[in-house]
Amino acid sequence: MANQLIKTDICIVGGGITGCALAAYLGQTTKKTITVIEKDWQEADRIVGELLQPGGVHLLEKLGLGKALDNLDAQPVTGYSIYNQGKAIHIDYPLSKGLKPGYGFRNGRFVQNMRALLEPYSNVQRIEGNVTGLIYANPDQIEGAIFSNPDGSSMEVRAELTIVSDGIFSKLRPELSLTQQKITGFFAGLILEQCELPQPGHGHVFITDSTPFVVYPVATGQSRMLIDIPGDTPPKINDEFRNQLKKQIFPYLPESLKPSFIKAVETDKIKLMPNHKLHPSPAKKRGVVIIGDAFNMRHPLTGGGMTVAFTDVYHLARNIEQHLKNGYALTSDQYINDFYNQKSDETGVINILADALYKVVQNPILADACFNYMKQGGEYASGPISLLSGIVHDKRVLMKHFSGVAKYAMAHPRSDSISKTEIAKESLQIIRPLYLPEKPLWHHNLLLQLSKPFIKDK
Fold it and tell me: Which of 294, 301, 349, 378 shows the shortest CA–CA distance to 55?
């Protein structure tokens, strides 16, 4: 028996934040029929995707989707507090030109709000099903997707354009990406109930001798704690693991967080989420584009994932909109190539910063230097936080401050410090692999230029 068939202009695989934002925007701005396939439209309980930086809020509003933040009990986040060896610095976002703060919220509620944005548009159809593969017109062209219904029957969605946005655990990624995701560790997630954050309205980053962790507000009386667990194998959630968390985390906590932390560790259901690194490199085929976490991931320490997702949506949606206004068909693919080129420029800084900062906090010498560099205040603090927030995405600004941290480490050596040459080498090893895959010559020259002032010991 032949599969049942649905014909549509645009097929979107994945009804999460990325897929729904794209469908809502295109549903409003085009007359194209859009079919969104999601395996489960019920609210999920996840521990990541709960902090939207100011840059992401700005993009959401540019897409006309800002009401997705309404009625969430979302908590404004106006900056970061960073703790290191018993000392703290508090840095507000450099919000200007009418920019709004970031927001913390429960992921499941936000996803459901994004899905509700689809309801007004008659040209947007929601389907519950498990996508099992892509439909090939030929080896280099996609014309839709095949999925199984909850009752086990199969259906086909034939479309001029297929957009794959099925998230972290994408099944279709191997066909559309030239790189594979790499697990860089895990986050253990807890909810701290009824605790007062030391700096209300701030995200809190703790640098420790064992592992970094973050805490930020997600609802009234609730804060999310994410603890980095290194390694490529998930730990077993048992009494030994809970005792290990108490030993490693409790000594670094401010007094106001300690009771809630102990209660959460002893009674809460600790959830794990793998942290991935995935460099964006498309295996280009006609009629298909891959976006969001399905295509590109970085360490979630900086909370940049949703900003990258909305950047993808904004540029792809605007490209499609303009392409159609110019009278071109969805089957021509220049707008897809333009999107892939734009992505490298727009999201490169967030990717580089996230992975580089994670490596910095794992290196005691560079971690101390980074903390003390920002402690100087002024541009030394506002510059890095503007990159973290997604407000600024200029790679030269990133290199300026990263090289500044390396220079600070050499100018203010610790008693156990390695040589200045070794510090320079370690700094360049952190940043070089993250730059070179995208634009090798330009970034190589920039690295050489920035390294000259401090590459030699005095």
Answer: 349
CA atoms within 13 A on the CB side of 401: 30
Count of helices and strands (H, E) across the chain: 13, 17
Please give, one letter per residue, the 3-state secondary structure of 341-354. HHHHHHHHHHHHHH
Rg (CA), the chain: 23
170's CB contacts (< 8 A; 6+ apart) are 164, 290, 293, 294
SS3 call for 278:
strand
- CA distances, 228 to each of 296, 300, 364 (Å): 20, 10, 16
Backbone dihedral region for residue 325 (phi beyond 0: left; psi -120 to 50: alpha; all else: beta): alpha
Q: Which amino acid would we find at residue 431?
A: I
Q: How far apart are CA 354 and CA 324, in angstroms?
A: 35
Segment 334-361, tens digit of pLDDT: 999 999 988 877 788 899 899 899 999 9
pLDDT digit string, tens, across residues 221-277:
999 999 999 999 999 999 999 999 999 999 999 999 999 999 999 988 899 999 999
C-alpha to C-alpha distances, 408 to 83, 362, 450, 454, nearest whole angstrom? 18, 17, 14, 10
Give CA–CA dist 191/188, Å, rounded.
Answer: 10
By CB neighbour count within 10 A (0-12 exposed, 13-18 middle, 19+ buried), where does 48 fall?
Answer: buried
